[in-house]
Amino acid sequence: MTRRTPADAVTLPDVAPVAEVATILRHRLVTPVFQPIVDLATGAVVAAEALARGPAGTRLERPDELFAAANEAGQLGPVDMLCAERALECALGTADPPPMLFINAEPAVLDQPLSPRMLELLLSGPPFRIVLEYTERALSTVPGALLRIAGHAHRLGNAIALDDVGADPMSLAFLPFIEPDVIKLDMHLLRRPSAPATAQVAAVVAATARRTGATVIAEGIETAADIDVALRLGATWGQGWHFGRPGPITALGRAPVGRTPAVRAARPGLHQPVGSPFEVAVATRGSAGLAGDATVGAALERISAAVGGQEHAVVLGSYCVPGDVEQWLPRIERVTRQAVYTAVLGPDCGRQPFPGESSLVVSTPGYAAALCRRPGAGVLFTEDHETVAAVGRVLLQRL
C-alpha cells in the first residue's frame, strides 16, 4: 500500500479560499492531531480520536476555519474525505497504532461516495477498529445516508459513535434508530452534573447502554474531580485535557495502552433491514401478531396516551392513499405537536411511499410503538423496542 504524506515545502497562496483549498487538496496539506481516549477505571489508552488540522502556521490550521473555507469554495466533501484519509494514513504509518481510531464525519457530506484512496485504506486490513463519529446534525439532515454509512462500517467490522449526546434533543430522540456502538456525552454535562436536564440525559443513555451494550464516553475531562462526575453519569471511558492534549500520534505511546476490546462487535444488517415496514414488522414479531382494522383506533389511542407528556418524540410514517390514514390523523396530531422530528412518506410530498401499505412509528426515550397496515393482510401493532427501531430504520432509509 502506498504511503502518502503532505508536501511540507508547499505554502498556501495569499488569495481567495477557492485557491487556498485547491492547494490543500492538491498537496494533501492536512496533518491530523490525536487525542487519547482512556479507560476511566485503569487509565489505559483504549482509543484515539483524530482531529483535523490544516497547514501549520496558516489561518486554515484551525479546523473551523478550514471547513468554513472548504464550504465557501464548494469543496467541503473532498476536504472532509482528505481529513479522514490523512487520519488513517498517520495511524497506519506509526509503529504503535492505537487499539481503535475515532474519525469524525461531516454531516453535510455523508452521502458522498468513498474516494478510491479511502477504499484502499479501509480494505488494507488496518490493525485497529475504526469508529466513525457523527454529531446530531446528521440525524435530522441526512438520516438515510447516515444509516447507509453505518451499515457499511459494520460490514467491515468497524463501529459508529454518536457525539455531543445531550447537547440537542435530537440526539436522544434518534438513539433507538441509530443505536450507536459508542455514545459520547457532551462536555456541558460534566459542568452541570446536578441539573435536571443532565440527570435526564444520563438516565436515557444508561438505559440505552444497558439494552444495547453501547460504550459511554465522557468528553471534556480536565481534572481528577471530573472523572468522578463522569463515572456518576455512567461513563466508562473518558477524553479531555486531563489525559492529554491533541498532538502527534507518536505521543500516544507514552501512556499505557489497553488492548482488550470493549466496544461491542459489529452487527452487519442492523442499520439497513430489508423489506417494507409491514414486512419487517411481521418478520420480527411473526404473523401471530396480525389483527384486523378494528384494532387501529385502540392502538392509536394507546400511542397517544403513552406519549403524552414525554419529550424528544420522533414520528415517522408512510401512506399511499390519503383515505387509508384519514382516521389516524386526529390522534397522530396530538403526538406530532410535541415531536422534535416528524417525517412522512406520501404520494404528494416527493418521497416514495411503500405501495399498498400504511405505517406509523412513534418513539421517545421511554416508549416506542409501530402500527403497520397492509389491506388484505392485516394490521400489526407492536411496542417492542427492537421491532419499532427496525421499522423506523426502513422509513428513515427513504429520507
From TrEMBL:
Domain of life: Bacteria
Domain EAL: 14-260
SMART domains per the UniProt record, alphabetical: EAL (SM00052)
Database matches in InterPro entries: Cyclic-di-GMP_PDE-like, EAL_dom, EAL_sf
Pfam families from the UniProt entry: EAL (PF00563)
Signal sequence, renumbered to the chain: none
Protein name: EAL domain-containing protein
Originating organism: Paractinoplanes pyxinae
